[in-house]
Amino acid sequence: MPSNLDFWARQVFAVIIGAVLSFLLSFLIGRLFLWLVTPVVRWPHLNPWLVANLSVPVIALAVGTFVGVLARTRPGILAALSLLPLVSYSFFSITRLPTFQVMRAEELITRGLLPIALMLAFGTVAAIAAFRFRKSKMQAATKQSNMSYSC
Predict the structure, then answer these.
(1) Contact at 8 Å (CB) between 55 and 115?
(2) In sequence order, what are the residues at sequence separation of 6 or more whose Cβ sits closer than 8 angstroms to the Cβ of residue 82?
(3) Domain ranges of the chain
(4) 90-96: average pLDDT
(5) What is the pLDDT of residues 79-92, one digit of tens each?
(6) Phi, psi values for residue 71, rounded to 5°
């Protein structure tokens, strides 16, 4: 039986590595997208918007899957916690406007809250799916090893 310290160390490790992975993937996907698409796109003012909205599901799915594989319990909560630093950074960088300007409500929802909700939802679902897949594989392996010992 693993000790309580090992349990919590693995949980904290999953959250910290997931947060680092989210920033790293954000940087790499943004650079890759700008390198591949910028010469082709006719409307360069759309590039930041395209990068932000197309990279959200990829980052969330990758981080959620990674955290789901590492987590021992509650993978959805751990995935949301690992995506929280990137989500808060994205929200505050999107909603920062020049002085004396106010963001309209529909702009706040479409540019700020909707991508955040999608990122957290995709990350949570990916973490839970990876956790269940890993747990079912472990149970199948345990069952197979028990059957081989009984023969």
Answers:
(1) no
(2) 14, 15, 16, 17, 18, 19, 21, 22, 63, 67, 123
(3) 4-141
(4) 67
(5) 999 999 888 887 77
(6) -70, 150
